[in-house]
Amino acid sequence: MTDEAANVFADPTAYADEPRLHAAMAHLRAHNPVAYVDKAPYRPFYAITRHADIMDIERDNNLWLSEPRPVLVTAVADDFAKSQLESGAGLRTLIHMDDPHHKKVRAIGQDWFRPKALRELQVQVDALAKRYVDKMAEIGPECDFVEDIAIHFPLYVILSLLGLPEEDFPRMHQLTQEMFGADDEEYQRGTTLEERMATLLDFFDYFSKLTASRRANPTGDLASAIANGRIDGEPLSDVDTASYYVIVASAGHDTTKDAISGGLRALIENPHELDRLRHDPELIDTAVEEMIRWTTPVKEFMRTAAADTSVRGVPIAKGESVYLAYTSGNRDEEIFDDPFTFDVGRFPNKHLAFGYGVHFCLGAALARMEMRSLFSALIPRLDSIELAGEPELAATVFVGGLKHLPIRYSIR
Ligand code: HEM
User: Fold this and answer.
1) Cα of 354 from ligand 1 centre, angstroms
2) Residue 95 CA: which ligand 1 atom is closest?
3) Gene3D superfamilies given for it (predicted)?
4) What ipTM is given for this predicted complex?
5) CA–CA gap between residue 145 and residue 141 (Å, rounded)
6) DSSP 3-state assignment of 392?
7) Cα 161 to middle of ligand 1, angstroms
8) Contact predicate 187/178, CB 8 Å
């Protein structure tokens, strides 16, 4: 049972089958919280399923490094990415870096995501949220909430913040889906490594042109701040610049889309919680936090040991990697009362969906703001809502959530 349970982490279809996934994770938390997983096409790794262990590892960022393997990829892709990077063509985003370089690169974009900068965005985001609720009213009484609403709203917010022209938004959307959804047939460009790399090269090509244009004519947007960012007085390298755009443009919307659509599904499936929120709008902050815990759109990050060490007594050698199972940490019975209950008033809610430590999600405050805005605009206008078909989850090992959420509703 333990081996079988641990293998869910090496099986993209497991994340599309929640009962199977949660049963396996609960088993591991209880019986094998540091589980050795050796299953092709991945290199062996240790799956860490307890909340406390994930936090300890993320806290100790000198011992547990993001390089060379920040996320789970196949052994072949791992080697290929390494060779690409050595040749100067690979992706090297914030999530791939360790301090001290990581801290300096992160500082370039950080101010754009602070509460003060976000307050200036609030009016725009609220207006956009209203626009999407109006759209629901217009296209009702049925829609696919993922395809029609949840995909577009965060994409629009992050690409506007970057400063990209609206006509390029569909292209960015497609590239992000290909990159994050590479394990799911509906999203992937192709199955070969070359086809997967082609997505990355398209991103790079687009952003190299953007860098050149913002260096020549800075426009005061986030893209200009990145293009003209300096480290120790030197311009950011071409790889670091393009990678910065890729991480912001991609991490900024698929994740939020998953939290929004999964959050709405949780409200539909827990009508009592929807009523609580409807009658007490002040619960919006705790409700949003609970939606993020409940959905945990980013399934994992990895860290690699810089020296021989151990976790819960299990020896881990220098160079071996651990898989931080956020989905499991966010259902850990030791941390959360009734972890399988969706509770819009849950407080405290120390979930790990945004990670922890020096890599803590740069866009967490933005994601929260978008979700507050959308649900605050939607819920007071909603007379009724129900599922109009079976919700469908993406097969993924990294970022994912609902692909389709058919709903029927009446909205004012
Ligand atoms: C990093 C989750 C929204 C940008 C991360 C990490 C997680 C995460 C788990 C890694 C943390 C770690 O290693 O400890 C999420 C979730 C989101 C979300 C669940 C939505 C609900 C956003 C948004 C942006 C964003 C809106 C906007 C740009 C980033 C960036 C990083 C990051 C740039 C890398 C930070 C670093 O390595 O220093 N996110 N994220 N994320 N996120 Fe998010």
Assistant:
1) 6
2) 37
3) Cytochrome P450
4) 0.99
5) 11
6) strand
7) 16
8) yes
